[in-house]
Design a protein that fits this description.
Layout: H1 19-34, H2 41-52, E1 56-60, H3 67-77, E2 82-86, H4 93-97, E3 98-103, E4 106-111, E5 118-122, H5 129-132, H6 136-141, E6 143-146, E7 149-152, E8 158-163, H7 176-179, E9 182-186, H8 194-207, H9 222-235, H10 240-255, E10 259-261, H11 265-281, H12 289-300, E11 305-306, H13 308-312, H14 317-327
Length: 342
């Protein structure tokens, strides 16, 4: 893995990374995470894709499923700094962003935990809206304003937030404007079978400690990971037919009979960014419709507000996106009839 830590990276393309090399590095990152985290590897792949697309992730699932462990080991695998904030009802915005204190005759900035690369916002719905809103500027613009002074965050920066879908007493549901800032909403779920449950226990015996992340060796340097993000942004082609497909999916969520408010244009942008990352992770420098279908539910469902009568009936936004995926015609080739490669 030393070649990925080199500042003089050889390879194809203006960024200096070939699609095949990109795929290999991504596989190493995923394997490193899965050596610690026991669960669906597809969750890890989607989380990696979101980070490569410079997006934020919301994990919504029951307690004790390894969400915190996943975030921490992922940060270690890409050589990033990691901070965790436990959201509570008495948490203040300054506890997240930092503040200025008078020291030695001058006001000195004391940076908060948001000044990191990977920020875990644990149980984000436990704090009131004013505190939740302290993350908005950082999530969207990668900067923080403290007492009128703007501080640019070091890249990469992304938020991994968690919330518990049960036990709603004393919580503050995330407003739609903040949900819209998350590229994906993921649900890891319980272990699939007894063998997976046993594997969790077996690894705990092997580690001899509750937190094994201190032993994780980074697969890549942070500078190389930034180059991977640049590759996704500048070297992955999206044909007109795929752009049309994404646009039709987003518009169809607004026209569905069960929906009061459909996905915003930011939902289409989220799909565009993450599908380019997925394509690169699969060793391609072009996007195909299957990339879109893989993450459409995760990228669009949390941006949909159902009509109240449908919500009462138990209809879920995920079902709406699944309907839309069945109804919208999938393109068979690009505008020049060459498939989806350049």
């Amino acid at each position: 893995m030393d070649e990925y830590r080199s500042s003089d990276i050889k390879g194809a393309g203006s960024i200096g990374i070939s699609p095949a090399e990109f795929r290999e590095v991504c596989r190493n990152i995923i394997d490193t995470v899965c050596n610690v985290y026991v669960g669906d590897s597809l969750i890890v792949e989607k989380m990696l894709a979101a980070s490569l697309g410079n997006g934020n992730v919301l994990f919504e699932d029951y307690p004790g499923l390894g969400k915190t462990l996943l975030a921490k080991v992922f940060a270690k695998a890409i050589g990033a700094r990691y901070n965790r904030i436990q959201f509570t009802p008495d948490l203040l915005p300054a506890d997240i962003t930092g503040t200025k204190i008078f020291r030695g005759g001058n006001f000195e900035l004391v940076k908060g935990p948001i000044f990191t690369h990977v920020l875990l916002a644990d149980e984000i719905n436990r704090s009131p809206p004013k505190t939740q809103a302290a993350l908005l500027e950082a999530m969207e613009e990668r900067q923080v304003t403290i007492e009128g002074e703007t501080h640019v965050l070091e890249l990469p920066f992304f938020v991994i937030a968690t919330q518990n879908p049960i036990e709603q007493e004393g919580t503050y549901p995330l407003p739609e404007a903040q949900l819209d800032r998350f590229m994906l909403r993921l649900r890891p779920g319980y272990p699939e079978d007894v063998e997976e449950e046993m594997e969790i226990l077996r690894r705990r015996i092997e580690w001899r400690k509750d937190d094994p992340t201190e032993d994780v060796v980074p697969c890549v340097s942070l500078s190389y990971f930034r180059k991977m993000q640049e590759f996704v942004e500048s070297s992955v082609y999206v044909g007109r037919s795929v752009l049309k497909y994404i646009s039709e999916l987003v518009r169809a969520t607004r026209e569905h009979e069960y929906v009061e408010v459909g996905s915003s244009p930011r939902g289409g942008l989220a799909l565009l960014k993450i599908t380019r990352a997925i394509a690169a992770m699969n060793g391609r420098d072009y996007v195909i419709p299957d990339d879109v279908k893989l993450v459409a539910v995760d990228a669009l469902a949390h941006r949909i507000i159902l009509k109240i009568e449908r919500a009462v009936e138990g209809i879920r936004p995920e079902a709406v996106v699944e309907d839309v995926l069945r109804e919208v015609e999938v393109p068979k080739g690009d505008e020049e009839g060459r498939g989806f490669a350049r």
